[in-house]
Design a protein that fits this description.
Elements (H helix, E strand, L loop, with lengths): L2 H13 L14 E2 L5 E7 L10 E7 L4 E2 L2 E3 L2 E13 L2 E4 L3 E4 L3 E3 L2 E2 L4 E8 L30
Antiparallel strand pairs: 1-2, 2-3, 3-11, 4-10, 5-9, 6-7, 6-8, 6-10, 6-11
């Protein structure tokens, strides 16, 4: 590599943000908005970094569920433990699920519990951003009828 190329690479390394690492065991389970849902959130959008994805793990207790609801952002799930039913389909551990933007997350139910690693990110088509505030790490869940579904 030529000297000027090495200098350019060195500048890019200096200018660009380094990676951030969070271990799941260093995160506490926090209440999330749907009945029986708990989560550990590693990264989430903020004023300082609005394009950061909303990334973490969510766990639904036995009997946990959510209704059909819509989002303008994109999302990927990886089911690590248990199983759930979404739109009549049983999804088991080892399953990847992709939700494009915009999308409707179909009603989810779990009889025995399910754990899902998820990543919500700004929609390339809609520009819609994940929503952290008032949905994750909440003191008290609202009644289901009070939850926004964006329909």
């Amino acid at each position: 590599m030529a000297e000027d190329e090495r200098a350019q690479v060195a500048r890019l390394i200096e200018e660009r943000a380094p990676h951030r690492a969070v271990h799941v065991d260093d995160l506490e389970w926090k209440r999330i908005r749907w009945p029986g849902e708990w989560g550990k959130i590693a990264f989430h959008p903020s004023e300082a970094d609005p394009t950061e994805p909303l990334f973490g793990v969510t766990r639904f207790e036995p009997g946990g569920h959510f209704p059909d609801h819509a989002h303008d952002f994109a999302q990927v799930w990886y089911i690590t433990e248990g199983e759930c039913t979404v739109n009549g389909e049983t999804l088991k551990a080892g399953t990847f699920v992709f939700h494009p933007d915009p999308h409707v997350e179909r009603e989810l139910h779990t009889e025995n519990g399910v754990t899902i690693v998820f990543c919500q990110y700004p929609g390339p088509n809609t520009g819609g951003r994940p929503i952290y505030s008032d949905r994750f790490d909440i003191d008290e869940r609202r009644e289901m009828a009070e939850e926004p579904t964006t329909f």
